Every structure is written in C-alpha cells, then in structure tokens.
Amino acid sequence: MKTSWLLTLAAAFCCIGGINADLVDDIVNAITHAVDCASCHALLLPLAGLALIGDGALTGTITAVCKALGVEDDDVCEGVIGDQGPILAHDLRSISPFGRTATLLCEATFGLCQAPAVNQFKFPLPAAPVNPKKWISSGREPFQVVHFSDVHIDRDYTPGAEVQCTKPICCRNWADAAGEPIKEAAGPIGSHSCDTSTSLIQSMLHAASIQENSFSIFTGDVIEADIWLVNQNGVTSNLKQFDEEMQTIMTNSVFPVMGNHDVAPVNSFPRNTSDGATSSQWAFDVQSSGWSKWLDASAIDSVQHMSGSYSILVPGRNLRVISMNDIYWYKANFWLFDSDNLQRDPNGILTFVAEQLQAAEDAGQRAWIIAHMPPNSGDALHDQSNYFDQIVRRYSNTIAGQFYGHTHRDEFGISYSDYDNRIAENAISTSWICPSTTPRSGNPAFKVYDVDPDTFEVMDARVFFSDMNDASFQTAPQWTQYYSAREVYGAAIPGGWPATTPLTPAFWHKVTEAFERDDNLFKKYLEFKNRGINVETCAPGACKDQALCQLRAGRSESNCQVTTPGLNFRRRDSEESHKHDGRHSTIDHCEGTGLGTILSQMPGKMAGANIEGLRQKLAEQSIQWEGVKHQT
Ligand SMILES: *[C@@H]1O[C@H](CO)[C@@H](O)[C@H](O)[C@H]1NC(C)=O
Questions:
Q1: Residue 152 annotated as binding?
Q2: Could you give the CA distance from residue 325 to residue 304 in angstroms, rounded to a whole number?
Q3: Element (H, E) at 444
Q4: Higher confidence at residue 433 or residue 581?
Q5: How far is the CA of 352 from the centre of ligand 1 (A)?
Q6: How far is the CA of 91 from the centre of ligand 1 (A)?
Q7: What average pLDDT does the segment 235-260 reach?
Q8: What whole-number distance in Å separates Cα of residue 236 and Cα of residue 285?
Q9: Is 260 marked as binding a ligand?
Q10: pLDDT at position 29
Q11: Which pLDDT does position 631 carry in this prediction?
C-alpha cells in the first residue's frame, strides 16, 4: 500500500479530468527554484505526481523540458528519457520525496544534495587468522598480465562521417545532419569524439595478444555511448560479437567483468527486490555463455546466478580472480533508489566477494579483485563503498591487487587501515585503474603488469598506447610502450625504489607525496592520465588537493569530492567549451549522456530560458496526459 503522501499527491493532481495548469506551473517553478537539496526534494513532489499518472506523463514532461532547454538534440532527449525515465517514475512512485533515498536520488540526478552520511554498519566477517600467511617472493621472473578496459565499440563507426557533430558520439551519418557539409571527416581507423571502430578494437586485441601474457583482464564496457539508441537486441549482439573477437584473437584466457554499459537501458541492473522489474538476467545469460571459454563450470554458473559476478582460480597459478559486478552500487543505476528500506548488500554481491576471499585465505591462495567501477570514484554510493572497504581491510593480506576501469583514465587509488592517518605505513591495498581503449577519452591504451609468480604483487605497470597523431594511425596503428610506472615514479621517491620490491600500496602513497612536492611530476601524471589528449589543468590548491585526496582513497566517502550544483555546472560548462573547439562533446565519460547528465543540467539552463514558451510546451504536453492510464 502506498504511503500517505502518495494519497495526498493523488488527491492533488490525479483528479478526474486530468492535469490542470497548476501542475505545469508547479513543475516549471520547482525546476527554476531547484538550487539546493531542500528545493530538489520539493521538485520531486510534482515529479512524483506525474509518475503517479503514469510513466508517459513523467517521461513526456522531462523530454519536453530537455528539448525546450536544448540540453541535447531532440532525438537524444527522447531516447535517453524514454529509456531511463520509466525507472525514475518507478522510483518516484515507490519512495517518499523527503527521505534518505530521495536525497541519494537528488545527488545522483540533479547533483543538488550531498551524499548523506554513511549508514554505519559493521559488515559481518570472520575473524582474521592469528598467523596470517606470509607472502615471500623467491625472486623468479615476473609473468605478464594485460589489462584493457572501456572498449566502447561502435559497430556503426563510419569513416568520412562528421567528427564535430552535435551528438554525444560522432563519426556516424546521423539522419538529422544529412546534407550538411562535413567540417572534419572521421578517419578510417578512429577519431577523438568518437567511439572505437571495429578495426581499432581488432588492432588493439592483436597488440595485446602479442604481448607476452599469461592471461588478460577486461574491466568492462563493451557497448558504444549511443545510449539513447541501445536496446536488448543491440546490446546482446554487440556483447556476443566482442566475446567472439576476444576468443579468436586473444591466445590466452581473458577474465572479464560486467560494465554499466553492458545492459539496456544503460546502467540498469535492478535489484532482486525490485518487484516486477524488467530483469537484466538476459545480460548475465549472454555472458555466462560468452565467457565460458575461460571459466570453469562453477564460475559459469555464478555469472548466471550471482548477477554477473564470479570467482576463478587461474589455471596453473595460486591466484584467485574475483570478478565483482559493482554496478549495484553505482549512482547512475536508478534502480537503486526504488525503496526507502535500506539494502546493505544488493543481490548479495558483497557477501559473495567476502566468501570467495575467505575461501582463498583458507586455501592459502592470493586474490585479485576485478570490477568495473573503482570504489574511490565519486560514482560509487558511499554505503556499499564503505562496506566493501571493510572487506578489503579484513582480507588485505590475501588481496594482492584490485583492478578497475570506468573512468577512462589512467589513475589509481590507495586503501588505508586508518583513513584519519593516511600515511605510507597504513597503506594496505592498491586499485589499479586502466585507461580506456575508446579514443573518446584520449589516445587508446592498455596496461601490461609484470607480476611476481609467488606473491602475485605487481612489479611494474607499463602502459601501451597508439598515438593518433602519428601518420600511421589511420592505416596501421602502432602500439608502443608509453611509460613504465616503476621508471617514472620510482625515480621520484627519495632514495629510489629497490628493484626487487613490488609497487606496493606504500609505493603509491610515496608517489602521491612526490606529487605534493613536485608539481611537474604531478603534471606528468595528468598528461599520462589522458594519454596526452585534453590534458586536465589541475593547479596547486583546491583542485590538486582534491585530486591527491582521491588518489589516497579506497572508498568514495574519503575522496574529498563535494557535490555542489555550481561545481557540477562549472564542470559541464568546461566540457561545453571543449565542444566548441570540436574536440569533445558534453559527455560524462563514465555514464555517457544519461538521464543523470541531462537532469543535472536543467536547473542551470532555466536561467535565461524562455519560461513562457516552456510553460506552453508543457501545457500542450499535459493534454496528452489526459486519459493516460496509470502504468505501474
Ligand atoms: C536476493 O539475493 C540475495 C542474495 O543472493 C538473496 O539472499 C535473497 O534471498 C534474494 N531476494 C529475492 C527476493 O530474491
């Protein structure tokens, strides 16, 4: 039964005869005045009123606002909101607009609330052993592991198509731009502003497969960023095609993860408690078969029944790879906001990971965690990121590394035993974050780790890339070593870093201290981060402090990110300015242009908008709501 506020709402808005002009006014006013967390909650009230009328009323209204404000091209507004809006409608019908879940929703969509304080909870874990196993290297030669991520393959990439288009991704012949003169033609292999062509991904896989490597890890996001067009059929065939390419080209095993783009609508992995929700089971089914070449029977079963997560002992090695679907704590997965009841461990993923680590500890194995979204990212919900961090602390002697993608950047994160005292001695785990293949976020790249065969710790991380400015790129891309982490950063540590010592969490902490002292080294890091393209400027002061804080975090609550509308809009404004020089579109790299990116721009765009025109559009829209059936 619905709560009382819903009945009040229904009485106010859902009168026989449909919507009145008051609701239109309420919505326009509420969006105009949505400037802080309280007013965001207030905005959810009329939006919930629309959702009660039906999915169509809510999606129709938001679409009309999106178009009227010119947030995106009309087809993008329609596609994104048409796909993801019904999830938001389901949320708004299911929660109180004034509760904690609504605060999370306001943070994730409009960017108007801060993340609420972590719901403190001691995640239940068995006690640590009295005599933990000591991991000692016998000094044997390291073996190699390739890490690639965020391939975002656009099977409709069209050489010769416009690079400087108005859509979130370009290099396709968009119908609404037909006949317009081409300002910059897409190259045969790839272009910035565009996702990965088939020839580019095949070139990358070949380059990765000829690296000496024992196995590869792939940290997710197969699908291109045209998320306003994706559907189950398209995603299914794209996942299958890439699985086949990996099976054919990669000579050794690949251990993949689920990414937020590897489902349709984008990001949408409903929890198993979402009553009657469209399930994402089909995506798990596709991958449990698509990944079966590299997994054993138990892992294949787990992909299907543990929401895409699995655990596997690497053949011939004393190393367990635990692949975790962490999109169940990704902010832009709007299914996570459909209940006021706290769910500490959606779909049991954290419990599964803890069990696998316990099994590894019991068996004297080391473990690597692989997943899509890094837990220190601003995209990770604080609660689950905190609970996961507790697991990392408990099993830090077993975990030899964590490996992620999602941000498209070459970066890292450090977990500590004590976040009030982030020093090298307290550093207990490293998150290795892989740059993307998609050229949308810099020159395409992948990492090769040199791994100690006894301890499974990383001795060196070498990044390989293909320089798109090189003349050969558009005919036969060359993949060369860009830099070695040990070479560049080891030299910056006072006294150097001993050749036989792995790149430990303490090493990375000392690297952040070197960044603090030496701004030129920090600039070098920023250059590496995007592989020399669209390099961020991040000056000493607030920007650099936040960046260092985020590197010194293994959980999102400790990354010093503050959600403020001003900051959000400034960030997006600076992305806008890239768009004008044609190098970049308004894309949020992790989400693509999703419902969140669209909604977050709306309040800012109300200033200077034609409010009367918008009112009129919504009034026309409201006529269509008449007689719309409640579609819960
Ligand atoms: C959801 O998944 C968890 C973990 O596997 C399980 O314990 C729970 O019973 C499931 N709930 C439903 C409603 O299926």
A1: yes
A2: 12
A3: none
A4: 433
A5: 12
A6: 20
A7: 97
A8: 10
A9: yes
A10: 84
A11: 37
Q: Tell me the mean pLDDT in the region 199-206.
A: 98
Closest Cα to atom 14, ligand 1: which residue? Answer: 272
Largest CA distance in the chain: 79
* Sign for the pseudo-dihedral over CA of 150, 155, 161, 162: negative
Return left, alpha or beta for 630; rule: phi > 0 is left, psi -120 to 50 is alpha, else beta.
Answer: beta
**Residue 247: CA atoms inside 13 Å, Cβ hemisphere, count?**
14
Q: What is the mean pLDDT of residues 288-311?
A: 98
Give residue 510's identity as a one-letter amino acid code: K
Strand order in the sheet with 143-148: 253-256, 215-218, 143-148, 445-451, 458-465, 480-484
Among protein residues, the one with the nearest Cα to ligand 1's atom 11 is 272
Pocket test of ligand 1: the residue of 272, 279, 345, 352 to mutate, having most ligand atoms within 8 Å of its CB, is: 272
Contacts of 456 (CB under 8 A, 6+ apart): 135, 317, 318, 319, 366, 368, 400, 401
Whether 302 is in the pocket of ligand 1, judged by its Cβ within 6 Å, is: no
* Two tokens, residue 484: 């070695």
Give the DSSP per-residue string, 42-90. Answer: HHHHHHHHHHHH-HHHHHHHHHHHHHHTTSS-HHHHHHHHHHHHHHHHH
Residues, the chain: 632
CA distance 625 to 620: 9
Q: What is the DSSP letter of 243?
A: H
Q: What is the pLDDT of residues 544-594, one digit of tens each?
A: 999 999 999 999 999 999 875 533 333 333 333 333 332 233 334 455 567
Task: Name the percent of the chain lying above pLDDT 70.
Answer: 90
Q: Do the Cβ atoms of 190 and 196 come closer than 8 Å?
A: yes
Please provide the distance, in angstroms rounded to a whole number, between the alpha carbons at the two ends of the chain: 13
pLDDT for 178 beyond 90: no
607 band by pLDDT with thresholds 50, 70 and 90: confident
Flag whether the pTM goes above 0.90.
yes
Can you tell me whether residue 597 is helix, strand or coil?
A: helix
| Spacing, Cα 343 to ligand 1 middle (Å) | 11
Could you report the per-residue pLDDT of 23-44, keeping only the tens digit for each? 777 888 888 888 889 999 999 9
- Residue 130: count other Cβ atoms within 10 Å of its Cβ: 5
Tell me the pLDDT tens digit for each residue of 9-20.
555 554 434 455
Mean pLDDT over each residue of the chain, to the nearest integer: 89
For the record, the structure tokens of 159 come out as: 């050489």
Q: Work out the average pLDDT over 1-14.
A: 49
- Amino acid identity at 161: A
Average pLDDT over residues 376-383: 96
Q: Which domains does the chain have, with CATH numbers?
A: 4-114+594-621 (no CATH), 143-153+195-558 (3.60.21.10), 158-193 (no CATH)
Expressed in angstroms and rounded, the spacing between residue 164 Cα and the centre of ligand 1 is 47
Distance between CA 171 and CA 108 in Å, rounded?
30
